[in-house]
């Protein structure tokens, strides 16, 4: 029999139903794989007792929710009651929430099993998982001696899924943090429409952009997991009160007559040839599947990253003001005579990493008196224009937009250490527009570059039409036939 | 717009993050890289454009104005670095 941890959610669900194996066996297979994969730095807080307890309950229940007995990994950004939840930051050291995020509440109610917390960039700020207090997560894909980044911020989630340490994982995406790591590790990652999943209990980075979503081994699993994560929540006033459809039922693979747009602005200077070729191949796959492909224009694309790097830091500076060493987390040891202000300043100086500090301070600056209009308000107006670009393309009858997910394949850990911060930000050039416009976007592994590293294409859909989007992604997945797996070296 | 060392010091103070004097020049340099990048936004014609307040076109939901939670002092204080007699404890605030 195949190693159970390598199964997809759909295959495990069917196997459990038929009685081929138990959730306890499935969970043990994952726990064994996790213990043998410490070199990947994916799981940062393991919860084997909780996992086995949930697995045995799932077995005892027999029939349960859609995820009954399915072992998952949870990004460290999600609060899980009684389990260390520190957003990969030193400042939340020792924090064990007294409450549970709505998304994880729903997963447990559906019968899912929690294997542990997954590595990420500190407060989800980063594109390489190198800003984590736990150390780097490492991409299971390797082409030479170098250790490669799994991307970020959901780097641990991507690594865990790609290395078969779990059947699926939760991620969050503020500027590309689900889709970019999915592309770097050869898995599927979906950022739902803003408002589809509740943000309650997920450590906030930039509240108008943050959205939780599934990271899985294929498109079908993304559909299954999204349905269990999504839904209105009175505890998040931005979660939308509309029905959650059966996304899996939308996966017919039939996209005849669908119109797919290719935005010319995504052909950026210096894009590697292999990315350009992948994009053309993806286009052809959709044409062969019966879709009509048209060129479209999203004229404000080049302003998306600068807009993001005003809005996200501004919101972060406000959200992260709560980490003051008073109510939770770590407090700096005060010196003789220190007052409360010194306590705040020292706590935040030693609790936050460099990138987080940088973004808080940039946010503080763009919101400060005299600069609010010039930076923050201007960025919010450009954001309106970026969203309008998409509205106009969809109004022309376009059903989905096809782009590369990332401007390159995975790079080596440490290779960006001496670049200026803006160089790292360019990783999100194709994904960040989607957050600014609040749209659903999915990265599908579609091919391998010259060195053999996986590459992904992104599909962007209409708001709240994840079912349609997943179906186009399913058609692309079937045409691409990406089945490669990393050779195990860990 | 260029950020000098004094501005970097002021921003760090506003953000309540202690930055040592000898780290301020590097910080100011990074701010300038990032703000130089952001500066592109000044090219965009934003005349008559409304700033975005919500990316989804929904009205915020309302609910009855009633107490829905409370009475959880222990849970609230459980994660505090220093809690005493039912309060969060902090260093002296008033001289």
From TrEMBL, chain A:
Origin superkingdom: Bacteria
Keywords, ordered alphabetically: ATP-binding, Ligase, Nucleotide-binding, Protein biosynthesis, Transferase
Gene Ontology cellular component annotations, sorted alphabetically: glutamyl-tRNA(Gln) amidotransferase complex
InterPro entries: Amidase, Amidase_CS, Amidase_dom, AS_sf, GatA
Catalytic activity: L-glutamyl-tRNA(Gln) + L-glutamine + ATP + H2O = L-glutaminyl-tRNA(Gln) + L-glutamate + ADP + phosphate + H(+)
EC assignment: 6.3.5.7
Gene Ontology BP term (one): translation
Top EC class, one word: ligase
Active site: 75, 153, 177
Amidase domain boundaries: 25-470
Gene Ontology MF terms in the entry: ATP binding; glutaminyl-tRNA synthase (glutamine-hydrolyzing) activity; transferase activity
Pfam family, one: Amidase
Job of this protein: Allows the formation of correctly charged Gln-tRNA(Gln) through the transamidation of misacylated Glu-tRNA(Gln) in organisms which lack glutaminyl-tRNA synthetase. The reaction takes place in the presence of glutamine and ATP through an activated gamma-phospho-Glu-tRNA(Gln).
Subunit-structure text: Heterotrimer of A, B and C subunits.
Family: Belongs to the amidase family. GatA subfamily.
Protein name, UniProt field: Glutamyl-tRNA(Gln) amidotransferase subunit A
Organism: Palleronia abyssalis
UniProtKB/TrEMBL annotation, chain B:
SUPFAM superfamilies given in the database record: Glu-tRNAGln amidotransferase C subunit
Keywords (A to Z) from UniProt: ATP-binding, Ligase, Nucleotide-binding, Protein biosynthesis, Transferase
Nucleotide-binding in keyword set: yes
This enzyme's EC code(s): 6.3.5.-
UniProt-listed Pfam families: GatC
Catalyzed chemical reaction(s): L-glutamyl-tRNA(Gln) + L-glutamine + ATP + H2O = L-glutaminyl-tRNA(Gln) + L-glutamate + ADP + phosphate + H(+); L-aspartyl-tRNA(Asn) + L-glutamine + ATP + H2O = L-asparaginyl-tRNA(Asn) + L-glutamate + ADP + phosphate + 2 H(+)
Domain of life (superkingdom): Bacteria
Record-level GO BP terms: glutaminyl-tRNAGln biosynthesis via transamidation; regulation of translational fidelity; translation
Gene Ontology MF terms in the entry: asparaginyl-tRNA synthase (glutamine-hydrolyzing) activity; ATP binding; glutaminyl-tRNA synthase (glutamine-hydrolyzing) activity; transferase activity
Family: Belongs to the GatC family.
Quaternary structure, from the entry: Heterotrimer of A, B and C subunits.
General function of this protein: Allows the formation of correctly charged Asn-tRNA(Asn) or Gln-tRNA(Gln) through the transamidation of misacylated Asp-tRNA(Asn) or Glu-tRNA(Gln) in organisms which lack either or both of asparaginyl-tRNA or glutaminyl-tRNA synthetases. The reaction takes place in the presence of glutamine and ATP through an activated phospho-Asp-tRNA(Asn) or phospho-Glu-tRNA(Gln).
The protein's name in its UniProt record: Aspartyl/glutamyl-tRNA(Asn/Gln) amidotransferase subunit C
Organism lineage: Bacteria, Pseudomonadati, Pseudomonadota, Alphaproteobacteria, Rhodobacterales
């Amino acid at each position: 029999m195949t190693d159970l941890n390598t199964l997809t959610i759909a295959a495990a669900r069917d196997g459990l139903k038929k009685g081929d194996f138990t959730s306890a066996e499935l969970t043990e297979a994952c726990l064994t794989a996790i213990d043998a994969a410490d070199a990947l730095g994916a799981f940062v807080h393991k919860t084997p007792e909780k996992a086995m307890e949930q697995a045995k309950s799932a077995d005892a229940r027999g029939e349960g929710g859609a995820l009954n007995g399915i072992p998952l990994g949870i990004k460290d950004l999600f609060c899980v009651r009684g389990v260390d939840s520190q957003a990969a930051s030193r400042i939340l050291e020792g924090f064990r929430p007294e409450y549970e995020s709505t998304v994880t509440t729903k997963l447990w109610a559906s019968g899912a099993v929690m294997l542990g917390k997954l590595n990420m960039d500190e407060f989800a700020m980063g594109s390489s998982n190198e800003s984590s207090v736990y150390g780097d997560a490492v991409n299971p894909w390797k082409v030479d001696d170098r250790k490669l980044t799994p991307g970020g911020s959901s780097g641990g989630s991507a690594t865990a899924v790609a290395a078969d340490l779990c059947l699926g994982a939760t991620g969050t995406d503020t500027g590309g943090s689900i889709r970019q790591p999915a592309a770097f590790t050869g898995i599927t990652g979906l950022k739902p429409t803003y408002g589809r999943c509740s943000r309650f209990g997920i450590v906030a980075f930039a509240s108008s952009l943050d959205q939780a979503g599934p990271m899985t081994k294929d498109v079908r699993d993304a559909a299954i997991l999204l349905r269990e994560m999504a839904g209105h929540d009175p505890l998040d006033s931005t979660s939308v009160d509309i029905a959650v459809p059966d996304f899996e039922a939308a996966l017919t693979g039939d996209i005849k007559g669908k119109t797919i747009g290719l935005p010319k602005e995504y052909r950026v200077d210096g894009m590697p040839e292999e990315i350009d070729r992948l994009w053309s191949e993806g286009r052809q796959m959709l044409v062969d599947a019966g879709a009509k492909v048209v060129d479209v224009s999203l004229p404000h694309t080049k302003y998306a990253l600068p807009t993001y790097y005003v809005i996200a830091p501004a919101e972060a500076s406000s959200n992260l003001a709560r980490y003051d060493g008073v109510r939770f987390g770590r407090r700096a040891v005060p010196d003789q005579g220190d007052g409360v202000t010194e306590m705040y300043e020292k706590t935040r100086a030693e609790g936050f990493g460099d990138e987080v500090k940088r973004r808080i301070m940039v946010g503080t600056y763009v919101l400060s008196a005299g600069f609010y209009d010039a930076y923050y308000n201007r960025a919010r107006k450009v954001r309106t224009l970026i969203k309008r670009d998409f509205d106009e393309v969809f109004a022309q009858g376009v059903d989905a937009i096809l782009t590369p997910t990332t401007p390159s394949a995975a790079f080596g850990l440490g290779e960006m250490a001496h670049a200026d911060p803006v160089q790292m930000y360019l990783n999100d050039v194709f994904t960040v527009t989607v957050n600014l416009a609040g749209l659903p976007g999915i990265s599908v592994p579609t091919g391998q570059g010259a060195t053999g590293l996986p590459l992904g294409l992104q599909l962007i859909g209409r708001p709240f039409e994840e079912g349609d989007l997943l179906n186009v992604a399913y058609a692309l997945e079937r045409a691409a036939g990406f089945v490669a797996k990393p050779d195990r070296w860990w | 717009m260029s950020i000098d060392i004094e501005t970097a010091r002021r921003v760090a103070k506003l953000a309540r993050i202690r930055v040592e004097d000898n780290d301020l020049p590097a910080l100011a340099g990074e701010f300038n890289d990032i703000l130089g990048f952001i500066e592109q936004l000044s090219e965009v014609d934003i005349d008559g454009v409304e700033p975005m307040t919500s990316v989804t076109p929904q009205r915020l939901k309302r609910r009855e104005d009633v107490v829905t939670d409370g009475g959880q002092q222990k849970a609230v204080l459980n994660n505090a670095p220093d809690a005493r007699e039912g309060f969060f404890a902090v260093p002296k605030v008033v001289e």
